[in-house]
């Protein structure tokens, strides 16, 4: 009788353990499914972010713009240098014009004085 009770108790314990394992695995299945879905969604999100970053990098023209600005800055410096040389040449030309005008005015005054003096007109 003790043997039957012992066998019954062992069978009950084994049955309870087996039932617990089955219940536990049934409870774990949704958690595992959710974990797999979460991992898949995180992977998809990372891939979307990678694509966005790649698209942004491809669309980014900042280096090209910086290069263009550097070229423009060089061009502006050259234009500035040319304008300085033109201003210097213009000042020299203006000084020559003023000197020539002064010479012509003095020459005209001298000619007028020469004409005004007796015998200076050579018309007598």
Task: Describe what you observe in this structure.
Helix content is 91%, strand content 0%. It is built from two helices and no strands. The radius of gyration is 53 Å and the shape is rod-shaped. The protein is an all-alpha fold and 124 residues long. The model has no long low-confidence stretch (mean pLDDT 84). The protein has two domains: 60 residues; 56 residues.
Radius of gyration, rounded? 53 Å
Give the N-to-C terminal Cα separation. Answer: 177 Å
Q: What is the number of independent domains?
A: 2
Average of the residue pLDDT scores: 84
What profile does the largest beta sheet have? none
Helix content: over 70%
Q: Tell me which oligomeric state these chains represent.
A: single chain
Poorly predicted runs are none
Short description:
91% of the residues lie in helices and 0% in strands. With 124 residues, it is mainly α. The longest helix is centred in the N-terminal third of the chain and has 58 residues, at 2-59.
Structural key phrases:
mainly alpha
What are the SSEs and their pairings?
Elements: H1 2-59, H2 62-116
């Amino acid at each position: 009788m003790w043997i039957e009770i012992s066998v019954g108790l062992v069978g009950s314990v084994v049955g309870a353990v087996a039932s617990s394992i089955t219940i536990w695995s049934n409870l774990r299945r949704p958690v595992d499914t959710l974990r797999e879905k979460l991992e898949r969604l995180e992977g998809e999100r990372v891939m979307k972010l990678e694509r966005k970053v790649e698209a942004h990098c491809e669309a980014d023209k900042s280096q090209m713009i910086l290069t263009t600005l550097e070229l423009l800055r060089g061009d502006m410096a050259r234009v500035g240098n040319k304008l300085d040389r033109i201003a210097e040449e213009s000042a020299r030309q203006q000084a020559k014009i003023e000197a020539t005008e002064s010479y012509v005015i003095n020459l005209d005054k001298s000619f007028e004085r020469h004409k005004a003096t007796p015998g200076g007109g050579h018309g007598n």
